[in-house]
Amino acid sequence: MSEAVVVALITGAFAVLAQWLLSRSNRDKLYEKMDKDNALAITSIRAELEKNQAVTDQKIADLTREVREHNEFARRVPVLEAQMQDISGRVHDMERRGA
Known about the structure:
Blueprint: H1 3-98
């Protein structure tokens, strides 16, 4: 083989090696960037989920309070109705006596 061919083969081999190293380096940088982006996305999603959970918890607390208020009225209304019937009966009796 002539010297030119050997030099060309060596140069080609080093060119291929250099290209492979650059490609590997770029791939590693890309993976690192993707990992950082994914970590940020996960952090953002977790923060959003925590916020949504807090809103949901507050809504549940508000609904629980409203249900308790409603239940209190539901317990008191029959008592008031009974008292109204008693008062209405008394008024009716008074009207009959007075008339």
